[in-house]
Design a protein that fits this description.
Elements: H1 2-13, H2 18-27, H3 34-61, H4 67-96, H5 98-121, H6 142-172, H7 179-215, H8 217-237, H9 251-264, E1 277-278, H10 295-298, E2 303-304, H11 312-315, H12 326-337, H13 339-344, H14 346-352, H15 356-362, H16 382-407, H17 415-446, H18 459-483, H19 489-518, H20 536-560
Antiparallel strand pairs: 1-2
Length: 586
């Protein structure tokens, strides 16, 4: 199948005359295929979110692992699922193309969800049940842990192509349209994408978690595996109608080429005035002195002109690793220019990655009023998802016009300001979580461990977390799309996931360090298997402090660094604001 699709890709996109190719593009693609492509990511997100939401319960009840050990496994799985999309974006843009990458990784995700389903169906793949509740429990064997890790590993591989490529692949379907029509459709595409992500989370933490909790793990995981198998077949059926853009095999090599050439030219002296040396910019100016920040990289495309020399040599294509084009240098500059803001948003992911709210909810009263209906513990994050979906869907059509009316300004919030608001809301979420956990712990102590405190006390922290994602994560995506060149489209979401992966690894280290330090001398660690003995409120407070430090760092980065905007249509505002939007000033 892989060879068949790759051959089909080459046949469609290679060797056609320009007129023939244009005619093919007009018959293929379009907005009619966008729902299918978005459905690919919705399915992967539903399966991944349903597993993540309830995985800590599955590990503690079926595999008899402790809370800290379970959290570390979840952090590692989330880190892999967030790191691999960065690699997937590189492979997609440089080698396979977006269609083939999405198709292959859908198969991987199907395999992973099927293996996870088998762990709940085949008794030998999980330890035997405890003789008494939470007593005399057998630890999982090496083959049992291997089967579990293999399933999570394949699901992480599934995320490596689906997450970074689906949005860019959907954009490929309308890339051949005229600019005005494409811009209108692009805004619609982004709105639908944000809503679909929220919708997938809602389905995952309600329907699938309910199946897992009420009908059994085997039924819940079987539904997930069936969903992935179905959407994989639908994607294959739609294959003849896709616009399949040929991968730009030189993009990532060209970025490396700039670094190599800059290192070779590091000893060259850049004159204060242009004595026989010309510097070129992507904007078209023929003689520019490079800025101090990027002087090292600008050495990569120094052209020593002689009598009769032309400027075309500086901008022409070259395969030599002794020099490179201005476009290559500018692409690397764009990628490096987003790094400060990217690094400043990592802690926001760290704060949002905590999965202990599910354990807290499992000890609390989860009934609605006097009804008998009880929310599954894994579904408590539905409030975060609803908040994210509603706010992201209402921001552009309702919130922005309202803010413009109130302030009298066309541009009300820049992307950097929205990211800062997202970090601030993360801090508020953890502060509220700490206060609620302290109250829950006190209530449990008063009633001898029998807790009747409502799980709805956890709602405020999840609402704040949802608002944080709606401000911070969405602003990040739009920021990267605005600054990075369109040829690096798959890198946009990959950067977002890569930051989340770094946060997951940092969370793993923090959990380990907190337990080692606080459990020293035989004392109960903060993150104890027994929530009533642990001090989860202190842990949340620690995350809030880290978030406050990060907010200061973000403000400094926003004030110091300026990034050139390349894709103007992604920044909200009228054409009147076009000149003011040349730079983001935070």
């Amino acid at each position: 199948l892989v060879l068949l699709f790759y051959g089909d890709l080459e046949t469609m996109e290679g060797g056609h005359a320009e007129q023939q190719q244009a005619r093919v593009l007009w018959k293929k693609g379009g907005m009619r295929l966008v729902p299918v492509i978005i459905a690919n990511e919705i399915s992967e997100r539903i399966v991944s979110a349903s597993v993540t939401a309830n995985l800590i319960i599955y590990l503690t009840t079926k595999y008899h692992l402790g809370a800290a050990s379970s959290a570390i496994i979840i952090f590692v799985y989330q880190a892999a699922a967030n790191f691999l999309p960065f690699c997937g974006a590189i492979v997609s843009d440089a080698l396979l193309g977006r269609y083939l990458m999405v198709t292959l990784t859908l198969f991987f995700c199907t395999i992973g969800s099927t293996l996870l389903c088998l762990t709940s169906v085949i008794p030998s793949l999980t330890p035997p049940d405890c003789a008494l509740p939470n007593q005399n429990c057998s630890s999982p064997s090496a083959p049992q842990l291997l089967a579990l890790c293999a399933s999570l590993g394949f699901m992480s591989l599934g995320a490596s192509g689906v997450r970074p490529c689906c949005l860019a692949f959907a954009e490929d379907q309308i890339a051949h349209w005229d600019t005005a029509r494409k811009d209108r459709s692009l805004r619609s595409l982004f709105s639908w994408y944000y809503v679909s992500v929220g919708f997938s989370q809602m389905v995952a933490v309600t329907v699938l978690v309910y199946f897992q909790d009420r009908l059994g793990w085997n039924v819940g995981f079987m539904v997930s595996a069936s969903t992935m198998a179905l959407i994989t077949l639908v994607n294959l059926a739609a294959s003849p109608f896709y616009v399949k853009v040929k991968p730009q095999k030189s993009m990532w090599a060209s970025l490396l080429q700039v670094v190599v050439v800059a290192v070779k030219n590091r000893h060259l002296t850049v004159p204060a005035s242009n004595h026989g040396v010309q510097f070129h910019s992507i904007a078209g100016s023929s003689q520019l002195v490079p800025s101090e920040k990027m002087r090292f990289l600008n050495k990569a495309c120094i052209l020593r002109t002689q009598a009769g020399g032309t400027d075309n040599e500086a901008t022409g294509n070259t395969s030599s690793w002794s020099t490179c084009t201005v476009e290559q240098v500018e692409n690397l500059k764009s990628a490096l220019s987003v790094m400060p803001m990217w690094s400043a948003m990592i802690v926001s992911f760290l704060v949002q990655s905590s999965s202990f709210g599910v354990l807290q909810a499992s000890t609390m009263d989860r009934r609605f009023g006097t009804t008998r209906f009880e929310i599954p513990a894994g579904s408590i994050s539905i409030f975060e998802t609803i908040t994210f979906t509603v706010w992201s869907g209402c921001y552009d059509p309702y919130v922005v016009p309202l803010l413009r009316t109130l302030t009298g300004r066309q541009r009300v919030l820049s992307l950097k300001q929205r990211m800062a608001i997202g970090v601030f809301l993360c801090i508020a979420s953890m502060a509220v979580a700490s206060a609620v956990e302290a109250r829950r712990r006190e209530a449990a102590a008063r009633h001898g461990g029998a807790l009747r405190m409502s799980a709805l006390w956890l709602v405020p922290q999840y609402v704040l977390s949802g608002l944080s994602g709606a401000f911070g994560a969405i602003a990040q995506i739009e920021f990267y799309y605005a600054v990075l060149p369109k040829s690096m489209g798959s890198l946009v979401l990959a950067l977002l996931f890569f930051g989340a992966g770094v946060a997951n690894l940092v969370s793993t280290v923090i959990v380990k360090l907190v337990n080692v330090v606080t459990g020293n001398g035989g004392a109960a660690p903060w993150i104890s298997d027994d929530l009533n003995r642990g001090r989860y409120d202190y842990y949340y407070l620690l995350l809030a402090v880290l978030g406050a430090i990060d907010l200061v760092y973000l403000v400094v980065c926003a004030c110091i660094f300026d990034e050139t905007v390349q894709n103007m249509s992604l920044e909200p505002g009228d054409a009147v604001e076009a000149e003011e939007m040349e730079k983001f000033h935070g």
